Amino acid sequence: MQAPMLTVKQLAFGFHDRPLYHNLSFTLERGSMTSLIGANGVGKTTLTRLIMGQLKPTSGEIMTAPDMRLGYVPQFRNIDPEYPLSIRSFVQLNQRQSRWPWHGKKEQQALTAALQETGLLARQQQRLGMASGGEKQKAYLAQALLTRPNFLILDEATASLDIKTKTELMTLVRELNAKHDLTVLFVTHDLELAKQYTQQYLLLTPEGYELNQTKLMDESRMPQELQPAEEVH
Ligand SMILES: Nc1ncnc2c1ncn2[C@@H]1O[C@H](COP(=O)(O)OP(=O)(O)OP(=O)(O)O)[C@@H](O)[C@H]1O
């Protein structure tokens, strides 16, 4: 059996004198989809930064698979309508030598494949600033896919998208998960999406954490601000 994609053992971390976790242990199996949930400020983004190696644990261990290739999709940010790049050129920014005219054939093929996988190929010449919220977020996803990740972290990537667009994005993520055996960590406030699209959840609380299957989630015990699912607008 292959090693898990990620193993966290007895992790402790805090900023200054404020501890965020003191004995956090969990495993992400390859090809699994996990929601990381918890109230604002409980430490979800910080945990992703620890996993990505941007922060060092106070104690404990974070072990990643030797062949791990990480992709990261940031929180949805709107892009100015005046933003001049096309969807294709924007996605290309994540490639080395991206802006050179002699861009390699292989890179162009990888770029086209990422646009195809995210359903953006037909719209690639559209200016990103004029694209819909869903297309913008898919463009970030396509950027992440360019590095051929086997582990994808989505950091509140669906926040502030409408319900149809969220569902479409998560359906796409699940297809990629099935096609590439992609391990997914989905940071979210949305319990409905967590239940619908991921098999397990890791709930962070100020007291500790809970790791469980989403089908066994007891929503009445979830932090108040996670219920009901975040506002759609
Ligand atoms: N670089 C930093 N220095 C000091 N404190 C920080 C730093 N980054 C985050 N914090 C604090 O650590 C706590 C956890 O922050 P984090 O962003 O991980 O929470 P979160 O669960 O992702 O919140 P949200 O749901 O609001 O995005 C917060 O109180 C935050 O203010």
What is the structure about, briefly put?
With 233 residues, this protein is α/β, with parallel strands linked by helices. It contains six helices and nine strands. It has two domains: 1-69 and 149-233, P-loop containing nucleotide triphosphate hydrolases (Rossmann fold); 79-148, no CATH class.
What structural category characterises the helix and strand content? alpha/beta
What is the CATH H-level superfamily of the largest domain? P-loop containing nucleotide triphosphate hydrolases
| Heterogens | adenosine-5'-triphosphate
Largest sheet: 6 strands, mixed
Could you say which overall geometry the principal axes of the C-alpha atoms support? Answer: globular
Unreliable residue stretches: none
Average residue-wise pLDDT: 89
Task: Evaluate the radius of gyration.
Answer: 18 Å
Q: Architecture of the largest domain, CATH level 2? A: 3-Layer(aba) Sandwich
Helix content: 25-40%
Assembly of the depicted chains: single chain
Spell the H/E element sequence. EEEHEEHHHEHEHEE
How far is the first residue's CA from the last residue's CA?
A: 44 Å
Family: Belongs to the ABC transporter superfamily.
GO molecular function, one term: ATP binding
Keywords: ATP-binding, Nucleotide-binding, Transport
Pfam families: ABC_tran
Description of the molecule:
The strands form two sheets. The protein has a six-stranded mixed sheet, with helices on both faces. The protein has a three-stranded antiparallel sheet with strand order 2-1-4, with no helix packed on it. The chain is built from six helices and nine strands. It folds into two domains: 1-69 and 149-233, 3-Layer(aba) Sandwich (Rossmann fold), CATH 3.40.50.300; 79-148, no CATH class. With 233 residues, it is an alpha/beta fold. The protein is 28% helix and 24% strand. The protein has helices at residues 44-51, 87-92, 105-117, 133-145, 163-180, 191-197; strands spanning 6-15, 18-28, 33-38, 59-64, 70-73, 151-155, 183-187, 200-204, 209-213. The longest helix is centred in the C-terminal third of the chain and has 18 residues, at 163-180. The structure holds adenosine-5'-triphosphate (ATP).
